[in-house]
Amino acid sequence: MDRLVVLREGVVTHLMELAPGELSIGRDAANHLVLDHPSVSRNHARLASSGDSWTLSDLGSTNGILIDGKFVGAGQLAAGVIAQVGVFALQLVRIPGGPAQPLPAAPQPETSAPFKALEALYLLSGEFSTLLSIGDLLEKMIDCLVGIFRAERGFILLYHPRSGKLEPAIVRKMERSELSDTVSMTVAMHAATEKKPVLLDDLTATARFQGARSIERERIRSILAAPLVDGSDVLGVVYLDSQMKSRKFTAADLEILEVFCRHASSAVKNANEKDQLRRDLFRLQTLEHERELTEYGTDQIVGASSAMEEVRAQIRALGAEEVTTLILGESGTGKELVARAIHAASARREKPFVAVNCMALSPTLVESELFGHEKGAFSGAVDRRVGRFELADGGTLFLDEIGELSQDIQVKLLRVLQERQFERVGSAKSLEVDVRIVAATNADLQKQLAAGKFREDLFYRINVFTMRLPPLRERREDIPALAEHFIAHFDGRRHKGIRGLSHEAREALVNYDWPGNIRELRNVIERAFVLETSSEVTPSSLPAELARFRPASPRAQPAPSGGFAIGERDLGKAREAFERAFILQALTRHDLNVTAAALEMGLPRKSLYRKLELFGIDLARLQADQERQERDQILAALRRSGGNVTAAAADLGMPRPSLYRKMEAYRIDPRRCL
């Protein structure tokens, strides 16, 4: 029994039974197959049978016919061959069955069970392109297949990317635990190995399975199984069975399922690739973040103090051992940098490193962020989302500010650490994950334990190995090296010819207590690049709170014969350099407002404009530098907060409405900062 399937843009428009004889095709209503579209001529083509074969002939149409992409006057239309008539694709499908009846004068509605099954499956295949994930696709497939074939049970096996083995991806009316060492699994594996569909229409009479316990226990009467094949690769297997004597699968059922699986294979492959692309996109974003860290010079740990040598030794030891690690340290001490270094030193270095700022996560969405969610799990869940644990599978998950997690999330996190299993929000299916946890906090977890804000069992689970990162004030000897490191970085970007620190600036940096630690130091050096006019960072370009830490009586510098121990040997040039720096500082304090700066300095505004011209101070360039610096600082804060505007505003010491205004002005989308 042959069927003709007509599709337009992948959607089935016609499905009809073919019988010996001729079938006229065209736009005219008198044709057997009416294709109503301007691309089709009134009498376009004829499909005629000759024995078991069919020939499609052009009837002098305007646009002709194509068979397998080539224009022909006539050609054979065999199973698997695609013909083109205008915008329509024609495909022949051969189904075992009884003798065909003579072709009626015009096509009549078909009501046979095989026809209905084939029609339903083709309509289902037309929906494949609208499904966004492999999970949605498999749900749709198995539910429709069980219904169409009136099966009692069913499952779909797919190759697991990590184990390389066929594993149940979705099941219906049976438990995953029931599948091992059963006839069901044996038949499915046979279909995969042989790359051929399997029909067992009476298992009780099949010698191979007579007496099998699973047959008797499950009362299986009939089985259908077909592989999902892409080229020479087996992607998986579709399995259906029936326990009713009245519903034994037939050869026609097998043929229909095989035809369907040929179409479904490409959909499964595409959906798998889409899911992989989502994971790859996140990993590329992670790599981009790492590139930016490298660009800012924070991809390496700077400092030769004994405290930092101990940190490096601990990183090497942790790289060789798979232990959960807790990093303690104040804000800005480089906890994420150390976590990345641990990951890079470990055997997981080629796998993802995923960082999560727990403080930046919305309390209502933290579970979804960590574990993912299913489509429709809650209002706004328009698609399945993969959580951070899945994205980090095989690699390292860095949980920064872990002390900010709520009690209920702590319980779920504890279970993942103990059992390596979790469920997406809105799903009862347990997912396995292989992730190394590195946690960090600047809070006193012992106090949180005593106050009942942090679970004791979770604390001991994450506190297998504890690292303490010293604040910058405890390793002052590293401050000059860090400052020089940032100077080299910013000069590489801005090319201002600044090569180092003056003695006074160095003393000021070393004597300051740095409550913001390395992050604050970096921001101070970046600010200095806006103001500094000499070849080295001087106190005049440092914030006032730092400049006062320089020595009251600087150590005398040896003066060369006939000269001075200052940057300029000429008094007039020294006066000009001082005046220029003085004007720049005033302008900076007043956000480059010339009127306000002139008023503070006791100068007429016109006089200040003349001095700006005299000293070559370009307000437009200063404004651009200031905006670029501010934009960079906002972007960095948003990255640190995982795109959370409230947390970023707190980090910047800025009211949230002000940050929103600046983000709008700089066209910053916080979602692109993840």
Question: What does it look like?
Answer:
There is one protein chain. The protein is of the alpha+beta class. It is 41% helix and 18% strand. The chain has a 6-stranded antiparallel sheet with strand order 2-1-11-10-7-8, covered by helices on one side. The protein has a 5-stranded mixed sheet with strand order 4-3-5-6-9, with no helix packed on it. The relative contact order is 0.06. Mean pLDDT is 80; it is low at 98-112, 295-299 and 551-568.
Main beta-sheet annotation? 6 strands, antiparallel
CA distance, first residue to last residue? 56 Å
Mean pLDDT: 80
Rg result: 36 Å
Secondary structure: elements and pairs:
Layout: E1 2-8, E2 11-18, E3 22-26, E4 33-34, E5 45-50, E6 53-58, E7 65-67, E8 70-72, E9 74-76, E10 82-85, E11 88-94, H1 113-126, H2 134-148, E12 153-159, E13 166-172, H3 183-194, E14 198-200, H4 213-218, E15 222-230, E16 233-242, H5 251-295, H6 306-320, E17 325-328, H7 335-345, E18 353-357, H8 366-371, H9 388-391, E19 396-400, H10 407-419, E20 421-423, E21 430-432, E22 436-441, H11 445-450, H12 456-462, E23 465-468, H13 479-494, E24 500-501, H14 503-511, H15 517-531, E25 536-537, H16 544-547, H17 571-589, H18 594-601, H19 605-614, H20 619-640, H21 645-652, H22 656-665
Parallel strand pairs: 3-4, 17-22, 17-23, 18-19, 19-22, 24-25
Antiparallel strand pairs: 1-2, 1-11, 3-5, 5-6, 6-9, 7-8, 7-10, 10-11, 12-13, 12-16, 14-15, 15-16, 20-21
